[in-house]
Amino acid sequence: MSARLLEVAANSVASALAAQAGGAGRVELCGALELGGLTPSQATIAMVRERLRIPLYVLIRPRAGDFLYDDDECEAMRRDIETCVALGCDGVVLGVLDADGDVDMERCYGLIAAAGHLGVTFHRAFDLMRDPRRALGDVIALGCERVLTSGGQASALEGASLIRELVAQAGDRIAIMPGAGVTAANLASLADATGAREFHASAKRQLASGMRHRPPRLADMQGGELRSDEEQVRALVQALQAIE
């Protein structure tokens, strides 16, 4: 049986290093967490790859919104994946749907082919599938390593019953990784309810802004950054290790 593992969604170099320092087993690097995550810049990927000792997976998502992508968007994703290959990343995180809520097999195959030897996680586009059990079979056929899912609900704890069904259906063919609302306080309950062994969290907090000059009319542009917090990551890892 595989060891339990915490993956942290990190939105910057600082977040990735905090995840590593807190004991995370893997980083999913992204930008714009407030939009659900987008592909980070090439410079950010390169800097994180240079400084991270744990596995690095990169989110491949060209825009916010749905996961129905046209040819130009898929070309942009393919090029981003090629960048990840060239920079020595360990894997990519992707997902493309068709208009009926099924896996777009043709487009996903093309992206996965571009990834070559890199590992592939199918991201939370999975939660928008019309038939998650059928979709899991499609994702397995694509050759993905894991599925990130909240069980089709706002949080993984709310979707725990479906996640448990998916874990049973997956067997040892693919990992089912709960994500969304995962905290140190609910991790043990989530593990018990789902039977999953990999978990995904951002473990983030909002930092206070260091700006002294703050024009009052533009207050919405002056908040501090969101950053993964080393202590939250450590608490999650400790909660995971305490599960019998």
Question: In a few lines, what is going on in this structure?
Answer:
The protein has helices spanning 13-22, 42-51, 71-87, 105-115, 132-142, 160-170, 187-194, 230-241; strands spanning 5-10, 26-29, 56-59, 91-94, 119-122, 146-149, 175-178, 198-201, 204-206, 226-228.
Features:
37% helix, 8 helices, 244 residues, 16% strand, TIM Barrel, 10 strands, two-stranded antiparallel sheet, alpha/beta
**Helix percentage range:** 25-40%
> So, the CATH homologous superfamily?
Copper homeostasis (CutC) domain
Assembly type of the chains comes to single chain
When the domains are counted, the total is 1
Main sheet strand line-up: 7-6-5-4-3-2-1-8
What is the typical, i.e. mean, pLDDT? 95
- Helix/strand order, N-terminal first: EHEHEHEHEHEHEHEEEH
Distance between the terminal alpha carbons, to the nearest Å?
Answer: 13 Å
Q: Return the structural class.
A: alpha/beta
Strand % is 15-25%
Indicate the CATH topology.
Answer: TIM Barrel
